[in-house]
Structure formats: structure tokens, C-alpha cells
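2024-03-11 09:14:02 DEBUG pipeline.ingest accepted 1 chain
2024-03-11 09:14:02 DEBUG pipeline.ingest length=294
2024-03-11 09:14:03 DEBUG pipeline.predict start
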Amino acid sequence: MSLRGKLIGAQNLCPYKNYMKHSYLILIILLTANFLAGLVFFDLKNSNAVKVNFYDIGQGDGMMIEAGNNIQVIIDGGATDKMVEKIGQDLPFYDRKIELMIMTHPDKDHLGGLMDVLKYYQVEQVLITGIKCETAICREWDKIIEEKNIPVKIARAGQIINLGGETYLGILSPRENLSGQKFKNDNGTSIVAKLISNGRSALFTGDIGFKVENKLMESGANLNSDILKISHHGSKYATSSEFLEAVSPETAVISVGKNSYGHPAEELLSRIDDYGAAVKRTDLDGDVRMEIGN
């Protein structure tokens, strides 16, 4: 259930030519030539069924992908210890391994709950943007990562994480190397990832706003997804009507809790209603569990 030791460049895939032939065809159809230009693979073991759990953890994002064959991918963890509790409810007591943890950006409502996950589970690999963060929570994060000697990779558009079979997680943003850079507002640096399995898909958008949405649409990447994790907990400054049209989701999931920001904004809810997607909210519906593969 381990991630392979290092990124495998597309140019080094010759020994896997026959195995990957069909997978390449799918990727070429689903992702653009521009996206493929930076293609990089790192693999997980095979999976059959794919489940996506959007956890009710209050005001924050916390999700787990269960890709089958005991493969789990964590995307963000909210601000409190609720995330580790939710994972513990879904995983058997003997499964103490998380194959991949993605921290979309280092805001507390995405990073805070990952601390306990790092402490209580064996995390095999972490994917981050690498942006400069000097807060106390970031220092604690760095300390745990170093103490547990967890391999860290820097996210970049063009990476493809093979979850096995016909299941992939493609990184769509950031589109440039942000490692070591400092940002006053890091929402726009969020990792954006698209999960693809057997012709179905889900798009995870972190806290990106209109500006990054526009860049994604202009990039030519195939954003079309059955499930859209609404950006920034339903902020009115994200998930434009144009972006909804580009993604064309059947279901829009809003990870949100009690807050003073007005999330989810009425403007945002109106845009989703105008588009016609079904809405699931963790503050109203509790944990939202969906399947995209079989």
C-alpha cells in the first residue's frame, strides 16, 4: 500500500508501456495536451471502488478518498481534532496507515486537524505547495513532518497520482512552482485536484477564488466533473457561474460550519441554483458520502 519511492517521469515509463497504454489513452482524452506537457506520475496500488467522504468538521475542509484495497487519501483536515475522529469511525482499528495526505494550503481551517492525523496515523507521503508559512501551526507541522521523516512532495499542475486501475488524481493547480514563496493571502495558492475513476470524477478546489478559476478555464484543462467541492466554504468571491458551466457538476458539496463570514453566501447558492446542481452541505447534511467508481 505504499507510494513508490519517487516521482517517475513520463520519459522513464518505457518498462510499463503495455500496462499503461490504456491509461494513457484515458488521460489524453480527459486532460489537455497543455496539461500533459508537465506530466509526472507517482503510483499507489490498485483499487476497485472509490468513495469520497466530505466530513462534517465545522468551518473547514476535511475529506477522505477511499480508493479500495485499503488506499486512503486525505485532503485537508479542518481546524480541530474532529478529523482524526471521523477517520477513526471509517477505518478499521487495525488500519493505521494513510497512503497520501494533501494539504491544499496552510490556513488553520485546512491544516489544523491534520496535526492529529499525523500523530495517530502512519502517513506515507505528503503533498503540499511548499509556500512559506511562519505561523505557529506551520512550525508545528514542519516539526512533526521532520520527526516522523515523512516524504514531502511539492504539488504542480501536471502531476498524476495513480490510485490503481482506472483511478487517478490529477493536479490542476498551482500551475507554477510556489515553493518558498510568501503570500499575504494564500487562498489562491490552493492545490486543485481532479479525481477520475471509471469515467466519473470529482473536483477539489481548496479556497481558490475567481482569479484562479479563470486561469484554470483559460488553461484548457478539462474541468468537467460529476462532483464539485465548492471553493472556500461557499464564499461569494468564488465559484462563478462560468466556472460552474465549465465544471458541469451534478452535485455541489459545500464544506462549512458555524461561522461569521456569511458562508455559504446567498449569491453563491443562487448561482448553483441557477445552474441546477444538487447541493449537499456538511452543516445541514452532516457527513456527505459519495461514490464515483465501481
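2024-03-11 09:14:41 DEBUG pipeline.report Residues 229 and 253 are 5 Å apart (CA to CA).
2024-03-11 09:14:41 DEBUG pipeline.predict end
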